[in-house]
């Protein structure tokens, strides 16, 4: 099935389908760099010891586990995703004795099952590009954060430089798609490039976050602008 413009159900099915290969392919295709980018996002979300943190669109849970390390045993971390196969892997990959225990919740990022002003910090990794309503998703994040709390949103980004842009396009088409094809996931990974074409660039993301109500917003291009982190404080 070719995924160009996509419904919420198609996105959920895609991430359920790729779940068994997802972590391995991320490590291979980014040469492990996605772990560094995720560390940066967690740092920018400013989690504090004993804090209550949220990882929206948590997938297999990398960011939630990093948040858990930051908040320590007196803190609390919730990981939310709507793809049950991703959550199953998140649960498997989390050590039973890890403190704090992470609470994994199957839910929609557009309707978070939390009270307003609940979280001290939040992260979202590679989720914003995939939600069907970006402004609604930002408003929902704003709603659940406490005043003064920060969300860091990591995702692909289009570099300014034509050379870096050409390299990114080439890498997605000539490396990512053929490698994922070997695992029978060609169409699923071919979806990344068009989803990136539709995704607002950093400056547009800043405006969207301000419109959602965030008071202090910065976008950091990373990896030569091929990735970016939107950091927004309520
Ligand atoms: C963790 C990463 C991506 C997660 C991800 C997001 C999506 O929206 C998907 C949609 C459909 C299928 C899969 C995903 C998905 O895995 C980021 C790293 C993985 C990337 C595939 C690697 C991309 C690398 C950069 C374009 C270039 C880096 C070059 C460097 C020399 C390694
Ligand atoms: C590319 S994965 C990212 C997973 C993880 N955050 C990471 O960085 O590795 C995107 C995740 O967003 C989830 N997702 C997309 N739209 C969602 C929505 N509306 N509600 C909840 N989860 C959603 C997908 O199920 C998928 O697990």
TrEMBL record:
Gene3D superfamilies: Vaccinia Virus protein VP39. GO terms for molecular function: 2-phytyl-1,4-naphthoquinone methyltransferase activity. It comes from the Bacteria. It is an enzyme of class 2 (transferase). It catalyses: demethylphylloquinol + S-adenosyl-L-methionine = phylloquinol + S-adenosyl-L-homocysteine + H(+). Pathway: Cofactor biosynthesis; phylloquinone biosynthesis. Pfam families: Ubie_methyltran. Its EC number is 2.1.1.329. Keywords: Methyltransferase, S-adenosyl-L-methionine, Transferase. InterPro entries: MenG, SAM-dependent_MTases_sf, UbiE/COQ5_MeTrFase, UbiE/COQ5_MeTrFase_CS. GO terms for biological process: methylation; phylloquinone biosynthetic process. Belongs to the class I-like SAM-binding methyltransferase superfamily. MenG/UbiE family. Methyltransferase required for the conversion of 2-phytyl-1,4-beta-naphthoquinol to phylloquinol. PANTHER family: 2-METHOXY-6-POLYPRENYL-1,4-BENZOQUINOL METHYLASE, MITOCHONDRIAL, METHYLTRANSFERASE. NCBIfam families: MenG_MenH_UbiE, PRK00216.1-5. This is 2-phytyl-1,4-naphtoquinone methyltransferase. It comes from Thermocoleostomius sinensis A174. The gene is ubiE.
């Amino acid at each position: 099935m070719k995924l160009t413009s996509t419904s919420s159900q198609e996105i959920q099915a895609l991430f359920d389908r790729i779940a068994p290969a997802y972590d391995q392919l991320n490590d291979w295709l980014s040469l492990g760099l996605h772990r560094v980018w995720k560390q940066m996002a967690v740092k920018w979300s400013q989690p504090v010891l004993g804090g209550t943190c949220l990882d929206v669109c948590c997938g297999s849970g990398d960011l939630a586990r990093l948040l858990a390390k930051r908040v320590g045993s007196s803190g609390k971390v919730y990981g939310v995703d709507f793809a049950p196969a991703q959550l199953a892997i998140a649960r498997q990959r989390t050590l039973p004795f890890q403190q704090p225990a992470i609470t994994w919740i199957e839910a929609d990022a557009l309707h978070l099952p939390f009270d307003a002003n609940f979280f001290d910090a939040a992260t979202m990794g590679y989720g914003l590009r995939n939600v069907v309503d970006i402004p609604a998703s930002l408003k929902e994040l704003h709603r659940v954060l406490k005043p003064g709390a920060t969300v860091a949103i990591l995702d692909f980004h289009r570099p300014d430089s034509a050379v870096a842009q050409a390299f990114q396009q080439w890498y997605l088409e000539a490396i990512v798609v053929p490698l994922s094809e070997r695992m029978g996931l060609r169409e699923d990974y071919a979806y990344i490039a068009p989803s990136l074409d539709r995704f607002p660039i950093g400056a547009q993301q800043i405006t969207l976050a301000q419109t959602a109500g965030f008071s202090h917003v910065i976008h950091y291009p990373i990896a030569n602008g091929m990735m970016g982190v939107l950091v927004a404080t309520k």
